[in-house]
Structures are given as C-alpha cells and as structure tokens.
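Duplicate of earlier report; Glycosyltransferase GT21C20 input re-posted below.
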Amino acid sequence: MAETEGKPQVLLFPFLAQGHIIPFLALALELEQRKKYNITILNTPLNIKNLRSSLPPNSSITLLEFPFTSSDHGLPPDTENTSAIPYHLVIRLIEASATLKPAFKNLVQNILAQKQKHKLFIIAGIFYGWTATVAKELRVFHVIFSVCGAYGLACYYSLWVNLPHKCPGSAQRLVDSNEDQFILPDFPEARAIHRTQLPSNISEADVTDAWTMFQQKNLPEWVDSNGVLFNTVEEFDFVGLGYFKRKLGRPAWPIGPLLLSAGSGTLGKGGGIYTEWLNTKASKSVLFVNFGSMNTISASQMMGLGKALERSGKNFIWVVRPPIGFEINSKFREEWLPEGFVERIRESGKGLVVHDWVPRVEILSHFAVSTFLSHCGWNSVLESLSQGVPILGWPMAAEQFYNCKLLEEEVGVCVEVARGKSSEVKYEDIVAKIELVMDETEKGVMMRKKAGDIRDMIRDAVKDEDGFKGSSVRAMDEFLSAAGSHVPDGEKKIHLKE
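Output:
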C-alpha cells in the first residue's frame, strides 16, 4: 500500500453488498477530502474490481483485495456480493465472509510492525463484529460503521438479542395481551412491534438456526469496538442513537448522510433516457418505484402493483426485478405484469418500465418526481429525504420495517403501502395510498412540507461554512479526534466525547 509518511492509516472494510459498499465509498471519499489520511478499502476481488471503476480518476484511495472463492463455501461461482444471490443465501455469504479473518488480522499486524499503532484505525461493517475483537486484541482503534439508521438498527439489534416474540406470556407483551404485538424490553421507545413487522429470519428464529447463531455471536462483539458511526442525522434519529449509547456504553456518531452525488462519476452511466422522459412531465407529477438491489415481491404482488399504477393514472418510473420464484438475474418477462401493460403504458406515455440499474439520486432530484415508492432501505431513504421527496413504504426485510415505522410514526414523511413479500395486497388499497400522498389532500400537503423540512435539516447537518458546523460535521470531527487521540487500555485512559 502506498503511503504518505506521517499520515494515519485508515482501513475501511464493508460487508459484501452494494448497499453497504456504496456508503463506505462515500465515507472514504469524505475522508480523502480532508487530506490527512492514507485510506484503504478492503474487500474481495470482484468487489474491488467494481470499486476500482467507481473511484474518481485522481483518487488517492488504495484498494486491497483478500482472496475469496465463493464455491468453497457452498455458494455459486464468482459470488461475492448479495446482489448476485437470492435472499436465502445471504446468510451463507455472511458466514463465508468470516473466513477473511486470518487475512485481515495478518494485514493489521503487518501495518503495526511498520508504523506506530496509534496511527492506524479501522472502520468495519455491521456483520464484522469479529474485526472489533481483533482490533481490541491488537490494541487498535476500531468503529463499526452502520449503513442503517440508528432507530431501525436499534429495533433490529434488540430483536436479535432478546427474541421477545419467542416468549409468549412474558412481560414483553402489551397490556392488552395481544399476542401479535410486543414491546422491545431494552428499547421501549419504539412502542409496539407487530409480528408482521418481523423479517422472515427473525420470525423463524429458533435459536439453533444459522441466522440466530451468527447474530448472537456477532452483535455482542460490538462492545469490543470504540464506538459506532451511523449514516444518519441526529435531528431525526436521536432516539435510536440513544439506544446504542446506553446499550454498548460507547459513543454513537451520526455522520450522515453519506451519499454518492449524481455528478460524482461513481454512479454509472445511463441517466440520459430518464432525464429526457422526466423533462416532459409536470413538476411533482411522477411516482418513482424502486425496491433496491436485493429485494423483490411475489408474482401476485407484482401483478397487483402493476394494476394499481395503471389505475392511478399517475406518471411513474418502475424498476422491475424478477418476482420471487425466478432467478435473480432473469431477463425481464412481460408475463410478470398485467396482460398488455407494457404496450399500453408505452402508448400512453404515462410510465417507464425499467429492468436495469437506474441512477436513483439523479431521478429523485428531478423536479418532476413527487413521491418514492420504496422498500425503505436506508440508502434509499436518505436519497429520498435529501431531495425532500416523501415516501410510500413497502418494507420487505432486515430493518426496513422499522425505518418505515420511524418515518411514518415519528417523522411524518411516509405512508406504508404494504408489508412484506408474501401478504396479499388489494390494488385498490395501493391506488388509495398513491392518491393520498400525491394528490392535494391534507395528508399529502403535510407530508410534502415535512419532507421539505427534513431536506433542509439534512442540508444544515452537513453545512460547514462561515463558522457554522452542522451536527454531522461536528460528529465527524469528534470521531476523528477520538481516533487520533486513542490510547489503548492499559496505557492511559481517555474520555471520548459523546
């Protein structure tokens, strides 16, 4: 690794998923702007190859690959990213990533042998609790970087460590004895959680399953870290941040939103066709439908959504991925949608049906876009709110249910359309929700106003000018100060600012 003498070495190690790698890249680029650090991103060969094509031409960021052969772990050949596998294989990829531990530890030891240990710190993903244990053993400053929001991850973390829905009749139940609802014992601020808000891996957890065994080892290892970075904004996510401060006894630094801008050169090409189409539409008249790179819905849900979009009469861009039951990289088939749908939409000019990658930020920032129908993955949430675009939520997995819950119940910028990948949804209900948010209803007007307020809040959080520093700028400064002044246990105690 090429280094500049005297600069601290920063190792960034994201999990093997686009939704994790992209915020890590954004963080690396942010740190690079400070010109004070030697920055290295660690990952497997195929992910490093993709990252290399994403870096700006003159970037000083180093990319380092760890050897990894997916077929050695019961995965399809050349599988190094969740976007290439169905959801049920994600846990196998997570388990396989733990085999990178020896290479990671060896790298850190080699760096320490070459330079002072206080000039090295590690930023690792949420599925790499073991990196915190390695860092503690080697007495290196370490933080977990959560690409999720604090509130959503707090619910997710609490569910895994407590499994309250597996304790019928316990104190976790609500007073009304509704067996389908429960309170999180260490996060009561979230109020009632309903069984339908449980991702399948938590709902089906039986203590001996692969997900439970992994998380009950991974999550407790977070206490070996020196803190947690969150890709979020303190002003609307302070409740979740508070949970981690008290749960881990560590600082929780909200440094978001860390996003790749539409003009950064890191988003790929192909935005022209969407911009041209959007330019023909009136202001705030388009619904953007995109469920991210890992999520899809059932065949019947897809039919219902197609029918709802057509019946609503709204302009829309819909990114269609193969429904459940089809290969994740299957070519688009018109049979997934109502008969004649694609032709009618093409003739009317009301919609674009897309089955490839799209530049989300570029689309969401366009004046014609009114509302985002999303799975409520946190990257999508931040991209939408950063542009002041309200959300129609269809959470499907992981902490998405609790992101949606936060945005609807606490922030007021979201209406849940549907929940999960298997529930049957009436198309009439989807149409009603679309009209509620996009039309000049009292609810729609209020949501757009609140989304605009959140946009301004986000802009203030990252502002650093004329002597003013926003909350995310201050949090980043505090984190870097703590990393720079870190002294390992046993040498000298320091107090980290929270």
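Residues 66 and 227 are 25 Å apart (CA to CA).

Merging into the original ticket.
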